[in-house]
Design goal:
The chain is mainly α. It has four helices and no strands. It has one domain. It has helices at residues 9-39, 44-56, 60-68, 75-100.
Length: 102
C-alpha cells in the first residue's frame, strides 16, 4: 500500500491565499466601484452599464471600472487599491509556485 504525502502547512496556506484572495479582491473592488457609481452624477444608462459589467464579468469588470471607468476616487488611492491587489495576487502565485515545486 502506497502512502500519499500530506501537504505542508505552508503549502496549505498558500493554496488558501491563491483561492480566497481573488474573491476578496473582487468583493472589495466591486464594493468600491458601486460606492463610487452611487456618488457620481452620471446618466442611468451609463451607471447601469457599469453595474452590469462589474457583475457579469467578475474580477475584470471591477478592475476595468477602476482603470478606465472614470472613477472619482483619487488616483493615489486607486493605484494603491488596484496595484496593491494585483501585486498581492502575483506574489501569492509566485510563492505558491515556489512552495508547491511546480
Amino acid at each position: 500500500m502506497s502512502e500519499i504525502p500530506l501537504p505542508s502547512a505552508l503549502s496549505i496556506v498558500m493554496s488558501l491565499y491563491g483561492y480566497f484572495l481573488p474573491i476578496m479582491l473582487y468583493a472589495v473592488w466591486s464594493a468600491l466601484a458601486f460606492s463610487d457609481l452611487g456618488r457620481r452624477q452620471v446618466a442611468r444608462g451609463v451607471a447601469s452599464g457599469w453595474v452590469a459589467v462589474i457583475l457579469l464579468v467578475p474580477f475584470f469588470g471591477a478592475l476595468a471600472y477602476h482603470v478606465v471607468g472614470g472613477s472619482t476616487i483619487p488616483k493615489p488611492l486607486r493605484r494603491i487599491v488596484v496595484g496593491g491587489g494585483l501585486a498581492c495576487i502575483v506574489l501569492a502565485l509566485a510563492l505558491g509556485r515556489l512552495v508547491g515545486g511546480g
